[in-house]
Specification:
alpha/beta; Rossmann fold; six-stranded mixed β-sheet; four-stranded antiparallel β-sheet; 10 helices; globular; binds adenosine-5'-triphosphate; ATP binding; P-loop_NTPase; ABC_transporter-like_ATP-bd
Length: about 280
């Protein structure tokens, strides 16, 4: 039987997920300046400025094709930017990745479903930067992987082949990989897609705990109803940044209408037809 999702709790919340020692006070967790990305003739992002503070969860909202995944992929270095620059806790992306500071939970993973690796193996990949060239897991790595799996409610599936998980379980395994990494800045591209309501609530709880411990989160979602509780700030994207600031001020009917090309009537800050 799978244990209750989210039953694991960080025993002693601490600033353990905050910036590493030596990071100057006030350094943003993520700073994106003037970012522009093209795919041949398609302009996916144009002059995007964005900042996520330390200990802050920021929502990224936009219609299909508005550039959210492109933004994530560019920030983590999987997509080349035409213009602009990105820093993570004041470091270059390469350095932040080498230090394991930057975690990424992609919308679609590129793991081969037939590849004979277990769920635990995948989560242990989050520890590679600590293992050195041998990539041999030590007791601390195994412990971190097991803790992360418990945290997302997958402890009982640790030895299952990754290709045999359901879509929602796979999403949670990818989150566990980022948790095991101990990333201080976490990028999540639609992490709630495919999750049932219980799993979504538990994943939201894990993110809140991360932020409470000093971590920083940028999360894209189409679930506008969950944003005000999860993210103190939000960014509305449509190739460019249309609005950014406190979530309640960003998710106005007018802004949402601009971002989604809708008639503003019927929209509220909590989503279509919801209460304001
Ligand atoms: N590899 C690619 N080659 C060409 N165009 C691409 C590529 N990837 C994305 N695009 C285009 O870039 C734009 C932004 O796409 P992106 O995937 O970043 O949007 P998104 O906001 O993440 O969408 P969704 O909500 O559907 O996930 C779209 O017009 C898309 O068609």
């Amino acid at each position: 039987m799978t244990p209750a999702l989210g039953a694991w709790r960080r025993p002693d919340p601490s600033p353990a997920d905050g910036p590493p020692t030596g990071t100057p006070a006030g350094t943003p967790a993520l700073r994106v300046r003037g970012l522009g990305v093209r795919y041949r003739e398609v302009v996916a992002l144009e002059d995007v400025d964005l900042e996520v503070g330390v200990g802050e969860a920021c929502g990224l909202v936009g219609m299909n094709g508005s550039g959210k995944s492109t933004l994530f992929r560019t920030v983590v270095g999987l997509q080349r930017a035409g213009t602009g620059d990105v820093t993570v806790l004041g470091r270059s992306v390469d350095r932040a990745r080498a230090e394991g500071l930057l975690g990424y939970v992609p919308q679609q993973d590129d793991l081969d479903r037939d590849f004979p690796v277990t769920v635990r193996d995948v989560v242990l990949m989050g520890r590679y930067h600590r293992m050195g060239l041998t990539r041999r897991a030590r007791a601390a790595d195994e412990q971190a992987a097991d803790d992360a799996l418990a945290r997302v409610g997958l402890a009982d599936l640790a030895d299952r082949r990754i290709g045999r998980l359901s879509g929602g379980q796979r999403q949670r395994a990818l989150l566990a990989r980022a948790l095991a990494q101990d990333a201080r800045v976490l990028l999540l591209d639609e992490p709630f897609t495919g999750l049932d309501v219980t799993s979504q609530a538990a994943v939201e709880q894990v993110l809140r705990e991360l932020v409470a411990a000093g971590g920083s989160v940028l999360v894209s979602t189409h679930d506008l109803g969950s944003l005000p509780q999860l993210c103190s700030r939000s960014v509305l994207l449509h190739r460019r940044v249309l609005a950014a600031g406190p979530t309640a001020e960003v998710l106005t009917p007018e802004n949402l209408a601009r971002a989604f090309g809708l008639d503003a009537s019927g929209w509220t800050a909590t989503g279509p037809g919801g209460a304001a």
